[in-house]
Specification:
This is FAD-dependent urate hydroxylase HpyO/Asp monooxygenase CreE-like FAD/NAD(P)-binding domain-containing protein. Helix content is 31%, strand content 19%. By secondary structure, it is an alpha/beta fold. Strands 1, 2, 3, 4, 5, 6 and 14 form a 7-stranded mixed sheet that branches.
């Protein structure tokens, strides 16, 4: 079966739902839209399907409305559902997932003047150019669809373990949790079990708190390359310090020196980070490829812990576990996984030394987060790259797009327009994985599609 659409949205995460909602709002009733994805939790993604109340958003509720031109929408939804939070509070991720679902459902209930939207539960397996001015996708269910406009909303895959568990007997491999968001593993953890977590970012904090909520009382060892953990938002956030990007140096070292100097002029360093947030994309675009690579090699871990902070009460809860010795940090590079006397053994090289140390645990949990926004996780993207329909970003940050999020592919001949939204555009925008940035990008992309007809 071959169907033609005005717009095809490829993906089933938050980016896809943000684009779809904007299409419903802006396209005429005569338009036809297809949304292609095989995730049963469409729009909620991994992060927003969690049911644990301790898993909070890392952005205040007042900045999380799905549609940027309706800034109070999420806070109003919370109040109407018996969650009377204020704009500065941090809602649960589960509630946000429900809000996203409800927002889409509300828009779809508009029968008059609404474009047609077909949700196709299938995986896009391949893409070809058609002479009819379209891009066509072969679907896993055997169908083919074609569109004059296509928006790629594919996220990133889970990062794999940094080493193969070859030395682990089959019976113990069930104690290696490669995807911690499948929370069923928590029910198998005994209260006194020792747990080793690989990675020390936001996912690590989520899993530590999930363990405690499920009755775990044992020790938790955290191994990461630098042993750094995310910092917390302030209970009373300081006013952001306005920062003029044009006055900042062109090198990472110079920028860091300047920002440190500004931090000494304010009572709370968060004022500098929050002042930089609206200008981050512009700052990234000023950097040369050499300086971007230097940032990724040397500054990224420190950027992450200061920029991507956790809710203040969540941070306080986690910090108590660190202070009482329940959670212990190790800085080093994992070398191998093995087993000894019925337990897992993680061998690692201690950072800045040649010393090899070991962590013995009953469970090993992969919290190294999401892989960098490349194309290797997606068979579709790899095939599109092979046919030069897309071009990978030189630093491995997704694919090349222009300032309007339109995909750059010089060898593509079809006049059909191809856009990308979300993590795939990190090479152009850098800060493009959080809701406040994606929702704006989605609106701008849809406006561009509508303006061309």
């Amino acid at each position: 079966m071959h169907l033609a659409y005005d717009v095809i949205v490829v993906g089933s995460g938050f980016s896809a739902i943000a684009v779809t909602c904007n299409l419903i709002e802006q396209l005429p009733a005569s338009a036809k839209v297809a949304v292609v994805g095989d995730d049963p939790g469409f729009g909620r993604g991994t992060a927003y399907r969690t049911e644990l109340y301790l898993h909070r958003l890392n952005v205040p509720a007042g900045r999380m409305s799905l549609l940027p031109h309706q800034p109070d929408d999420f806070v109003d939804w919370l109040k109407s559902h018996g969650r009377p939070l204020q704009a500065g509070d941090f809602a649960s991720r589960s509630d946000y997932g429900l809000y996203v679902r409800d927002t889409l459902a509300r828009l779809l209930r508009k029968r008059d003047g609404r474009c047609r939207v077909d949700f196709i539960k299938a995986k896009a397996a391949g893409c070809v150019e058609r002479y009819s001015s379209t891009l066509a996708f072969h679907l896993g269910n055997g169908d083919e669809i074609a569109g004059k406009n296509v928006v790629l909303c594919l996220g990133v895959g889970n990062a794999t373990l940094p080493v193969a568990p070859d030395g682990v007997p089959p019976l113990l491999r069930s104690r290696i949790v490669e995807n911690p968001w499948r929370l069923s593993w928590l029910r198998r953890v005994a209260p006194s079990d020792a747990v080793c977590i690989l990675g020390s970012g936001l996912t690590m904090i989520d899993q530590v708190l999930a363990l405690r909520a499920h009755g775990h009382a044992g020790k938790i060892d955290v191994l990461s390359r630098r042993g750094l953990a995310p910092l917390g938002h302030a209970w009373k956030p300081p006013a952001p310090l306005p920062i003029d990007v044009e006055t900042l140096p062109d090198t990472i070292s110079g920028i860091l020196k300047t920002l440190r100097g500004k931090s000494r002029t304010v009572a709370d360093w968060r004022a500098v980070m929050d002042g930089l947030r609206p200008a981050t994309q512009a700052l990234w675009q000023r950097l040369s490829s050499k300086e971007r690579a230097r940032f990724l090699r040397h500054a990224l871990p420190w950027w992450n812990i200061h920029r991507h902070r956790v809710a203040p009460d969540v941070f306080d809860r986690f910090e108590k576990l660190v202070l009482d010795g329940t959670v212990r940090f190790h800085a080093g590079f994992l070398k191998s996984l093995g087993a000894e006397e019925g337990r897992l053994v993680a061998s690692y090289r201690v950072r800045a030394t040649r010393e090899i140390a070991e962590i013995r645990a009953d469970w090993l949990v992969n919290c190294t987060g999401m892989e960098r926004a490349g194309i290797s996780h997606s068979p579709l993207l790899k095939e599109m790259s092979r046919f030069e329909l897309i071009v990978p970003d030189p630093l491995g940050l997704g694919i090349q797009v222009d300032a309007a999020s339109e995909v750059i592919a010089p060898s593509r001949i079809s006049p059909a327009r191809l856009f990308a939204v979300g993590a795939l555009t990190a090479g152009q925008f850098w800060e493009i994985t959080a809701v406040p940035d994606i929702r704006v990008q989605a609106k701008v992309v849809v406006e561009e599609i509508v303006s061309r007809g």
